[in-house]
Specification:
Layout (H helix, E strand, L loop, with lengths): L3 H5 L3 E5 L4 E8 L4 E2 L2 E2 L1 H15 L6 E9 L6 E12 L3 E10 L2 E11 L40 E7 L11 E7 L8 H10 L4 H4 L6 E10 L12 E11 L2 E10 L2 E12 L2
Antiparallel strand pairs: 1-2, 2-6, 3-4, 5-8, 5-11, 6-7, 7-8, 9-10, 10-12, 11-14, 12-13, 13-14
Helix pairs in contact: 2-3
Length: about 270
């Protein structure tokens, strides 16, 4: 049975034009809002699904997604155009536009590629320190009026860095997964989960603050089907730079000490 996210991020192909463009439509449902528009992870997930659906070589997996959200996306119909920029021997580069009411609201650049035969030399990774067993962490209620509406579709088990808690630093740690997940994860789901958590700067605040994503770079370092979908993913984030109301946050998803997906995100502190 598809999860709520699977249904919300579904795309329907309309046509393929002679110049390599593939058109899709999708319905952004009510109940996934965040601030003035839809949850950014849902918008990015739509870009990812369109890119994956437009790629003719299904052995190529989504490796990276760069995304910009130019303006809020409202509930209702959206249109997506995926265009193949180049298809090489093992890698495809695609551009995706999401528009609503004739206005482009989000842009994506996706790399889909097959597995490489050469292996990397062994070296130590910066593996997160062990967190408490996820079964011992209480689920946080993230939904209106204290949180965004899309939070009802995400299971958060926070370990460090609760929002508006006056924390001494912006580090965040916890577990996250999609509500209703009852089958293997896929790349768009991982993209959404990278974007699901609150920015670390909000954990340092003592009252409501608003931050918005300016740019998103997500990278996937696993075969999503190989993950244990019954177990939440270990999430951590940290802010590494800030200037003039903008800050750079590094986000990571892990499972059992192995990297799942990484994200570099530039955000603006609105107020």
């Amino acid at each position: 049975m598809p999860s709520a996210f699977d249904r919300a991020s579904a795309v329907q192909q309309l046509a393929a034009s002679s110049n390599g463009q593939v058109a899709f439509t999708a319905q952004v449902p009510i109940g996934w809002d965040q601030g003035r528009g839809a949850f950014g992870g849902l918008v990015l997930g739509l870009l990812a699904r369109a890119a994956i659906a437009a790629e003719i070589d299904k052995s190529r997996s989504l490796r990276t997604l760069l995304g910009d959200i130019a303006a809020p996306v409202q509930p209702g119909e959206v249109q997506l155009i995926a265009r193949t920029l180049r298809r090489g021997n093992s890698q495809s580069n695609l551009a995706v536009e999401l528009s609503q009411n004739g206005e482009v609201l989000s842009l994506g650049s996706a790399v889909l590629a097959s597995a490489r035969k050469p292996t990397m030399p062994e070296f130590a990774l910066d593996v997160p320190a062990p967190a408490p067993d996820w079964r011992t962490i209480e689920i946080a209620r993230v939904r209106p009026p204290q949180g965004p509406a899309f939070g009802q579709h995400i299971e958060f088990r926070p370990v460090l860095g609760l929002p508006f808690s006056g924390a001494p630093n912006p580090d965040v740690r916890g577990y996250v997964r999609l509500v209703g997940q009852d089958g293997p994860l896929d790349a768009p789901a991982l993209i959404a989960l990278l974007d699901a958590h609150w920015p670390g700067v909000l954990s340092m605040a003592t009252g409501p603050r608003v931050a918005s994503t300016v740019s998103f770079a997500g990278e996937i370092f696993c075969d999503p089907v190989s993950l244990d979908w019954q177990e939440p993913l270990d999430y951590r984030s940290r802010i590494v730079a800030q200037h003039a109301g903008y800050f750079l946050e590094l986000r990571e998803l892990w499972q059992r000490g192995s990297p799942v997906a990484m994200n570099q995100q530039t955000l603006a502190l609105i107020r």
